[in-house]
Specification:
CATH architecture: Alpha-Beta Barrel
Helix content: 25-40%
Radius of gyration: 18 Å
Strand content: 15-25%
Order of helices and strands: EEEHEEEHEHEHHEHEEEHEHEHH
Shape: globular
Oligomer: single chain
Strand order of the largest sheet: 3-4-7-8-9-10-13-14
Number of helices: 10
Largest sheet: 8 strands, parallel, barrel
CATH superfamily: Aldolase class I
Number of strands: 14
Length: 306
Amino acid sequence: MLEQEILGMKLSNPLFLAAGILGTTASSMKMVARAGAGGIVTKSFSIEANDGYDNPTIVKIEGGVINSVGLASPGVEAKKEELKDLNEIRDKTPVIASIYGDSEEVFSDVANQTKDYVDAFELNVSCPHAKCGFGSNIGENPELTHDIVSSVKDNIKDVPIIVKLTPNVTDITEIAKAAEDAGADALTLINSVGPGLRIDYKTARPILNNVFGGIAGPMIKPIALKCVYKTYETVDIPLFGVGGIRTYKDALEFLYAGASLLQIGTSIMYEGPEIFKNITHDLSNFLEENGYKNVEEIIGLSHNLG
């Protein structure tokens, strides 16, 4: 009932691990696969190793977290070994590599070096706490987004390209259309909101070492839903919905809004990896009880009610 085939990936269910949570090592990603995720998105990585920001890099807030990891990654050579170790799960749990860079050349180089070990790439052009030249510095600009996507598509012919968008723009559909026009095969909406700030009430100091960070978790769900809803009416490529999905009811909202696939990140901190099995179980029951034959029947349903 939840099975789908999208972007050449055969999926047992529409729930993916989102980039940034438990996607650092092969062992943690295998654990998430065993916990019932339909697919995996790795933590973002690039050519060179990056230590990111010093701790503290994450702080809880009501309804979510603020994080400022700074795109910490081991570099492509080390990541390549982790990806090779995931080959054993890819027949049942597709693996998407989240990659980042500060130029067309870097994105394309990372993709070329790892294309044999993944089922798709997610281009991170939207991190709100990346250092200058990375993340949302690209994704806030439709021309830069177009150029990055076009370059990767020209270099990588046989692996689907997904673009992860930032909500921190005036009109996300403008960026979405630029990515589609450049050849993107799908879009992920959304990356974290912000940046935001928390201050320690005792010391008057900002809690995060980097001062500001991206806001994620249940509190951003209404923003993510709006972005999915608007983008679904603008583009003709599949959408991954992400942002505060914690229960099957949240999943249904994103599917109704137009997402074909879903990603779960911060909510794992609340519910544990078993969140994947819990949501798929409840989602299957809902579909059966309401007379739906498969999940495709409800994708975009909110747009078709007359």
